[in-house]
Amino acid sequence: MPFSIATWNINSVRLRMPIIERLLDEYAPDVLCLQETKVPDELFPEKAFRKIGYPYIAFHGQKGYHGVATVARRPIEVVERRRFCDIEDSRHLSVTVRAGGKTILVHNFYVPAGGDEPDPEINRKFRHKLDFVAEMNAIRAEHGEVSASVLVGDLNIAPLEHDVWSHKQLLNVVSHTPVETESFEAMRLAGGWVDLMRLNVPSEQKLYTWWSYRAQDWEASNRGRRLDHVWSSPNLVPDFAGYEILRAARGWDRPSDHVPVIARFDLD
C-alpha cells in the first residue's frame, strides 16, 4: 500500500467528528492534517481518534478559532509549533514521520483568510495575510539522502487562473488577487517546493477544493476555488503516486466547505 497524507480544513473538529471518522474508515490515510480545528488543546478529542486507529496525535489549538492538528497511524514526532507575525493564533504544526526509509518533515498550515477587502492599508486582516505568506519564505523544502519535506494545508490562496471558477471575476476578490497569487508562487518557488496537485494536471484544467456555504446549490453552480494544497521537496516527486480530491465530501452530512485532498507516495 502506498504511503498517504490527507489534508482537510474541517471547520471544527468536534462538530465534524462523524465525517472525519467516515474519511478515516473509508480511505485510511497514514497521516491526516486538519485545519481550523477550533478547539483548545485540552479539549481535543484524542480518545475518538485513538478508537479508530489513529493513536499518534499532535495539535496546536486555541478556543473557538483557527487551530491545526496532525493525527497518524504510525509514529510521529513534533518538531515545531511556529508563531507567525508575532501572533499566537495556532496556524502551524510540523512533525516527522518515517516512510520508505525516509524521515519526512510534514508541515501543516492554516494561512489567514484575509477578510473581504483586498487592501492592506484599510484591512488589517489582509495585511496579516500578506505578512504571513512573506514569513513562510523561511519554510524551505528541506531534503537529503534519507529525508524529505511535505507542506499541506488550507493556504487560503488560489494561485493559478484555473484554480478558481472565474479568473476575471475573482481578480479583485481576496484569495485570488495578484498581490496574493504572485507573492504566494514566489514564496513556493523560493522555498524549493513542488506543487504536486498541478504536477501532472494541465494548467487549463479546473481544480477546486472549496465551495462556499453561501451557494444555494454548490454542486450545480460549481463556483469553487483551490485553497488547499499539497507541496513536497523535489526528491519525493519520483515517489509521488497521485492524489484525490474528495469532492463528494462536500455533500456529506453537516459538511465543511472544504473537502479532503489525499496524496499518495510509493513509500512503505
UniProtKB/TrEMBL annotation:
NCBIfam families: xth. It comes from the Bacteria. PANTHER family: EXODEOXYRIBONUCLEASE III. This is Exodeoxyribonuclease III. It comes from Mesorhizobium salmacidum. The keyword Metal-binding applies. Keywords: Hydrolase, Magnesium, Metal-binding. Residues 6-258 form the Endonuclease/exonuclease/phosphatase domain. Pfam families: Exo_endo_phos. Its cofactor is Mg(2+). Belongs to the DNA repair enzymes AP/ExoA family.
